[in-house]
Amino acid sequence: MAKRQLASDLHLEDDLTILKNSKKEKTEMGSSSSSSQCFCEICTEKKPTEEMFNNNNSCVYSFCSDCIIKHITIKVQHNNFINNNEVPCPGIDCVAHVLELEACSSFLPKEVIEKWNEALCESSILGSNKFYCPFKDCSATLIDDGDEGEVIRQSECPICHRLFCARCYVPWHSGVDCEEFQRMNEDERGREDLMVKELAEEKKWKRCPRCKYYVEKTEGCLHIT
User: What are the φ/ψ torsions at residue 11 (nearest 5 degrees)?
Assistant: First the structure.
């Protein structure tokens, strides 16, 4: 009877030891799992460390990759850059740190990278040499690479292949030189207005100094009052 009781006690002690070890392992696993997670400052959720964005600088804020992708995409699409086309850190009151393309290109969508690269290339062009295609449905960035002193007027946009005046930065004003075009009122510079003006010169029409309408002389003197 004593031997049977001793054996029972030994089995119970073994079971307790196994139970303690099992609890210890679970506690260590839980602690390890908790320590491998980080808090995202944007979505305010805990995410695994491997899903967090590392900005490779001394910024103290942490963000998950999903949130940082959304943040960068919105900033790039709306050209909301700072400094040399860098994206501001989304951290509250974090003004000392920025997000750079080099640190983000590994996880950003291709179209976002391309648009960010375009902004970087555009910013590298001197402002005095940069202008845009005057056609609103194009607006391509163009560079004035003419030699100093050389005046180029009629030019073709390499993107939409339409003619424009490189001196006035407007669609090509056929039949009207730049000096005369600059003297014209804004409401007289439309395509139809320029066509009428060109036709008037061809037909030798004159403009009434009062009403500004073109008139054609059929008889009488050349004087208009």
Answer: -65, -40
CATH, domain range 46-123: 3.30.40.10
Query: For position 179, what pLDDT does the model report?
Result: 84
Query: 143 forms bridges with which residues in the sheet?
Result: 130
Give the tokens for residue 33. Answer: 């799992």
φ/ψ of residue 165, rounded to 5: -95, 120
- Of 197, 122, 137, 132, residue with least CA distance to 164: 132
Q: What are the angstrom distances between the C-alpha of 144 and each of 7, 89, 151, 157, 167?
A: 97, 35, 11, 12, 10
Q: Please measure the distance between the N-terminal and C-terminal CA atoms of the chain and give it in whole angstroms.
A: 140
Q: How many residues does the chain have?
A: 225
More confident residue, 222 or 33: 222
Token code pair at residue 17: 């030891």
User: Read out DSSP for 149-169?
Assistant: T----EEE-TTT--EEETTTT
CA 4/CA 183 separation, integer angstroms: 118
pTM of the model: 0.47
Domain ranges of the chain: 46-123, 128-215
